[in-house]
């Protein structure tokens, strides 16, 4: 574990040094922990060796430890004095070191800490002003004091072994540019703490493995192989104490648990020695456990992992996991995930090298390095090109007049219906915010479509939105998108018909692409949704991408029809526009924001309002951004119902909590624990859909074993990880009158349909434990897939419309707050809205953040124009060239700027000896020192106007117009034909069968062909690999003319470029670079042709002389 804790007060820091850093959690009188100085800044300050109280105090007071002068410019009362960066060993390593005294463990632990701190030091920076904006400048130096501790806080007066190091890092760094000390910027260091933690553990475990210790991977990290779990538990009493306290207080989220350390901390034990501790620890162990620990210490040979993990495998795992839900990820988080997976076997350096070999697109946004893969990029481009290729390819559904059956439709709704019926595009889109009547216009348009002879199949991402909202609106048979993608029979039924997707904003890029594949070329697709609400859980905001890149013609509906009160309606309208000030102003007019600082009082007020609204009609919808706050709200409401006699006698049940593992997580055998539940949602090689297994343990070979309800035991088939989910059993108490929510699609015991997200009231609990719900469905006592239904997350509430809404959004949920989340939460109600928070200002600031995610296309810098000129059947390496060209442009701009700084030259200065543009082109090898373009055949001594650098941009996809006039082009063509009549363009080669097929059906197998490329042919044609080499000078041409006639072999060699230039490229828009290369190749061809003709002429003359006998000599 690695933690970064800030310290705001100099006085508190001095006390922390005296009572915390210098002293262990046990100590005898006069016993202290010796600290040591590290860091480049410490060396500059003259600090080395042991830490003294005077030097420590000087630095926290912002004074130079030697001169006593003020160090950084500002010394404020609330100045942050430094950060305590602390590194922690896992419990098994702490116990092994404490009980065996292996000095190698401590040496390697400190070495890993020092290497990681040095890497973090390289990221240190200071604030500077550039063009009026504050930016970070990397300084690469820090000063920190290291203190090694060996125990945790006492429990019952006795501390447990806990090896950890405190690196107190001071808030000062030396700016080498300005030659002065400044306050250090720790933003990047704090943000990248997960990477630093993973790098630290990777270094430590690699070092331990080198001296023979085995490393056992766990879900939370790692432990020393051979140390029993029973030993780990016996010496983890502090963790158990915090967990027990959290359970008593109802605290479940990890962040809140982290703050419980101080609340449960005992004072340090006085008068104990290390010998006393060893005796106390030894009493806890059995003789067998002591033998095992001793064996681990002294028998270190052969402790090698059964599964060999390379850097390549680790990066494969990290990319699969990280890109499952995001198109773009932070590069260091990707590396951290790989390091955690390969802990004990790989190092940070190996992972970075492996990542550099991968085809990754990398970009930087606000000092954060982001990356994506070409696979993700291919997915997005293929999706967009499919939609683009369907524009204008279909007949309008209704070309004549439209007679609306529902006269209550607004003008916007009627316009949207006309847009659908009159569109000639295969994919049609309707964009509308929350409560604008999208479902109403859907019903009108569907009736018109079916009247024309086509059938409408309606789908939505969630079960509630499809099987409830849509079916209740008249769309019989409406189902989930997932059901469509799995049901081949249903796919056949939709061919040639219309697929309508509601809440399309919740579809990821992969799902949307698969949907397009189902549609093929004959099925129309209609998308309705709002990219201003929640984004999909899966990667890729597909609906937003299509609007931005695919050129969809969209009909927009903006008039809000759900909210009945005018002020409430104005608040929702402002939120839909992202206008937070006016939205909060309207909410204040409603008295909707209820600010109560105390948690208990605030939740009791919400529960009282819940009970009041429930008495007036149906219970209100209660929404909170996080599960942690939802649990607190639920407990308050249940307590209020219990006090009002609305909750009957309770019985205990086991509910199945979905662990929400990604496919990559499910493939890691070390993640599984005995007692976990596996349930299949698809058939898989002898396993039927819905079958349940329990994890029973692990075999000797490490394979996880599971047992079915019938007693059948088998290895877990992880190759079918996509087809099952992993659950954890948790206790839940339910009584009559309880409100519960179904958490998995399925059937009840009496064959009633149950949708994920359905909320019901418990009407009765039978003697055998079966639960009777308000809709008549009966749940078997072992059903398991339900939880309390009093409070939902905003994501699960999207698509719902209720009378009253209560929103619980305190500081505990601010981290999960966003503009989109708040908009969804507030807009669910028709009549009333109440928001409960502990800080109104904090709430407004938190919801000012957007949850919009960056796409791979946006990171790569690819524009709509780029995509329109790309051949999607040949994209992969071509895309790589595009991305590289974007990088090259950025690097060129940076290079030019650096040269400008070095030369101190004004680029706009026109009377310079050489223009800046001419200089850059000369550096590229395109222009000689006299400013004349060699690539266009201008010899030295000829006159030529200045070169326009704007037409020399390295871009493979953006063709730019040449500045050459039409007259000059025609003249150049005539001269070329005169000089080289033999050089003629060959006719374009005939298309192969596969190419002809693609031309007639360009969308067929588009995604499969996405990895084919014309880059080799492209490079051959443009000579891109040789573009950096300077062209031959005019002197070379003159030497060729003066040279003797070449031999036949030489003539053939000179003629070789002629045949190269006759190659016909594939259909690809030509860039400036390729045009310049073509022009140069033509000039070379002309010269080669002339040389060939001259050689042939000389050879012919020689041949004629040899064949003709000399004339007879006249006789005298």
Automatic annotation (TrEMBL):
Which stretches does the entry tag as region Disordered?
884-912, 927-1116
Cite the AAA+ ATPase domain residue spans from the record: 424-550
Give residue spans, biased composition: Low complexity. 1040-1052, 1090-1107
Which residue intervals are annotated with compositional bias (Polar residues) in the record? 1058-1074
Name the residue ranges with Basic and acidic residues bias: 960-996, 1076-1087
Q: Which SMART domains match?
A: AAA
Pfam families tied to this protein? AAA_30 (PF13604), TrwC (PF08751)
Q: Look up the domain of life of the source.
A: Bacteria
The record ties this protein, via SUPFAM superfamilies, to: Origin of replication-binding domain, RBD-like, P-loop containing nucleoside triphosphate hydrolases
Q: What is the name listed in the Swiss-Prot or TrEMBL entry for this protein?
A: Conjugative relaxase-like TrwC/TraI family protein
């Amino acid at each position: 574990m690695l933690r970064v804790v800030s310290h705001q007060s100099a006085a508190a820091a001095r006390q922390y040094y005296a009572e915390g850093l210098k002293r262990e959690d046990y100590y005898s009188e006069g016993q202290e922990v010796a600290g040591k100085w590290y860091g480049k800044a410490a060396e500059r300050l003259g600090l080395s060796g042991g830490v003294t109280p005077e030097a420590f105090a000087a630095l926290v007071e912002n004074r130079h430890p030697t001169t006593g002068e003020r160090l950084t410019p500002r010394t404020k009362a609330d100045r942050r004095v430094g950060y305590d960066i602390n590194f922690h060993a896992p419990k098994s390593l702490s116990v092994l070191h404490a009980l065996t005294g292996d000095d190698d463990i401590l040496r390697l632990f400190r070495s890993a800490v020092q290497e990681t701190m040095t890497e973090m030091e390289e990221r240190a920076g200071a604030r500077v002003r550039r063009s009026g904006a504050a930016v970070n400048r990397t300084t690469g130096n820090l000063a920190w004091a290291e203190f090694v501790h060996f125990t945790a806080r006492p429990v019952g007066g006795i501390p447990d072994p806990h090896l950890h190091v405190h690196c107190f890092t001071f808030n000062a760094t030396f700016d080498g540019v300005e030659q002065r000390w400044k306050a250090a910027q720790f933003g990047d260091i704090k943000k990248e703490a997960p990477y630093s933690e993973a790098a630290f553990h990777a270094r430590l475990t690699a070092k331990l493995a080198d001296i023979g210790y085995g490393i056992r991977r766990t879900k939370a990290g790692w432990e020393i192989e051979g140390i029993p779990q029973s030993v780990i538990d016996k010496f983890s009493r502090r963790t158990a104490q915090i967990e027990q306290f959290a359970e008593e207080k109802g605290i479940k989220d990890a962040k809140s648990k982290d703050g419980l350390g101080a609340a449960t901390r005992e004072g340090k034990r006085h008068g104990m020695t290390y010998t006393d501790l060893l005796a106390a620890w030894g009493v806890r162990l059995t003789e067998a456990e002591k033998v095992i620990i001793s064996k681990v210490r002294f028998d270190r040979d052969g402790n090698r992992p059964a599964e060999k993990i390379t850097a390549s495998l680790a990066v494969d795992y990290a990319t699969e996991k990280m890109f499952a839900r995001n198109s773009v990820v932070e590069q260091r988080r990707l590396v951290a995930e790989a390091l955690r997976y390969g802990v004990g076997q790989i190092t940070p350096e190996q992972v970075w090298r492996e990542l550099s070999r991968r085809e990754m697109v990398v970009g930087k946004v606000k000092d954060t390095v982001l990356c994506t893969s070409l696979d993700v990029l291919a997915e997005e481009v293929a999706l967009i090109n499919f939609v683009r290729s369907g524009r204008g390819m279909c007949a309008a559904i209704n070309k004549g007049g439209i007679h609306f059956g529902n006269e209550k439709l607004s003008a916007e709704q009627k316009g949207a219906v006309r847009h659908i019926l009159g569109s000639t595009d295969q994919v049609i889109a309707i964009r509308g915010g929350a409560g604008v009547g999208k479902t109403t216009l859907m019903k009108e348009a569907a009736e018109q479509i079916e009247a024309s002879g086509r059938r409408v199949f309606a789908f939505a991402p969630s079960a509630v939105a499809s099987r409830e909202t849509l079916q209740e609106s008249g769309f019989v048979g409406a189902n989930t998108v997932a059901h469509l993608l799995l049901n081949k029979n249903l796919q056949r039924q939709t061919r040639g018909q219309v697929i309508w997707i509601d809440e399309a904003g919740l579809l990821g890029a992969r799902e949307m692409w698969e949907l397009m594949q189902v549609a093929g070329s004959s099925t129309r697709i209609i998308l309705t949704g709002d990219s201003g609400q929640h984004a999909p859980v899966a990667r890729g905001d597909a609906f937003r991408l299509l609007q931005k890149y695919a050129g969809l013609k969209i009909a927009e509906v903006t008039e809000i029809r759900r909210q009945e009160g005018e002020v409430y309606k104005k608040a929702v309208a402002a939120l839909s526009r992202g206008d937070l000030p006016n939205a909060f102003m309207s909410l204040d007019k409603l008295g909707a924001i209820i600010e109560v600082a105390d948690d208990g009082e605030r939740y009791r007020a919400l529960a009282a309002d819940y009970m009041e609204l429930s008495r007036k009609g149906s219970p209100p919808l209660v929404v909170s951004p996080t599960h942690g706050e939802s649990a607190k709200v639920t407990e308050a409401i249940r307590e209020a119902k219990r006090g009002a006699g609305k909750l009957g006698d309770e019985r205990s049940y086991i509910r199945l909590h979905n662990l929400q593992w990604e496919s990559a997580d499910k493939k890691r055998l070390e993640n599984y624990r005995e007692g976990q539940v596996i349930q299949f949602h698809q058939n898989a090689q002898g396993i039927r859909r819905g079958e349940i297994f329990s994890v029973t343990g692990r075999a000797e070979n490490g394979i996880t074993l599971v047992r079915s309800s019938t007693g059948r035991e088998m290895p877990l088939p992880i190759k079918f990880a996509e087809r099952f989910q992993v659950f954890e059993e948790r206790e839940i108490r339910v009584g009559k009158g309880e409100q519960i929510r179904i958490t998995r699609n399925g059937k009840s015991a009496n064959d009633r349909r149950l949708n994920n997200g359905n909320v019901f009231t418990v009407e009765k609990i039978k003697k055998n434990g079966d639960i009777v719900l308000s809709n008549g469905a009966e749940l078997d006592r072992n059903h398991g897939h339900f939880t309390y239904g009093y409070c939902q997350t905003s994501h699960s509430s999207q698509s719902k419309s209720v009378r009253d809404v209560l929103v619980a959004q305190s500081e505990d949920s601010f981290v999960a707050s966003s503009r989109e989340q708040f908009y969804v939460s507030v807009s669910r109600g028709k009549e009333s809205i109440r928001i409960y928070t502990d800080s109104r200002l904090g709430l407004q600031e938190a919801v000012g953040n957007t949850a919009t995610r960056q796409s791979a296309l946006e990171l790569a810098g690819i524009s709509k124009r780029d995509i329109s000129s790309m051949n999607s059947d040949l994209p992969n390496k071509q895309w790589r060239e595009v991305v590289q060209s974007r990088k090259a442009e950025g690097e060129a701009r940076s290079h030019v700027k650096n040269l400008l700084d070095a030369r101190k030259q004004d680029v706009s200065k026109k009377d310079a000896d050489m223009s800046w543009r001419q200089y850059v082109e000369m550096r590229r090898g395109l222009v000689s020192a006299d400013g004349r373009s060699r690539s266009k055949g201008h010899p030295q001594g000829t006159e030529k106007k200045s070169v326009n650098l704007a037409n020399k941009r390295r871009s493979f996809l953006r063709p730019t117009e040449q500045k050459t006039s039409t007259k000059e082009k025609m003249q150049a063509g005539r001269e070329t034909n005169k000089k080289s009549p033999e050089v003629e363009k060959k006719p374009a080669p005939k298309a192969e069968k596969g190419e002809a097929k693609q031309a007639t059906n360009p969308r067929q197998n588009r995604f499969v062909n996405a990895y084919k490329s014309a880059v080799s042919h492209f490079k051959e044609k443009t000579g891109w690999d040789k573009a950096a080499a300077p062209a031959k000078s005019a002197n070379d041409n003159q030497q060729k003319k003066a040279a003797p006639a070449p031999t036949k072999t030489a003539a053939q060699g000179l003629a070789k470029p002629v045949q190269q230039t006759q190659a016909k490229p594939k259909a690809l828009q030509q860039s400036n670079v390729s045009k310049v290369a073509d022009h140069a190749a033509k000039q070379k061809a002309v010269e080669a042709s002339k040389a060939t003709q001259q050689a042939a002429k000389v050879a012919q003359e020689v041949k004629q002389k040899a064949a003709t006998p000399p004339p007879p000599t006249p006789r005298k």
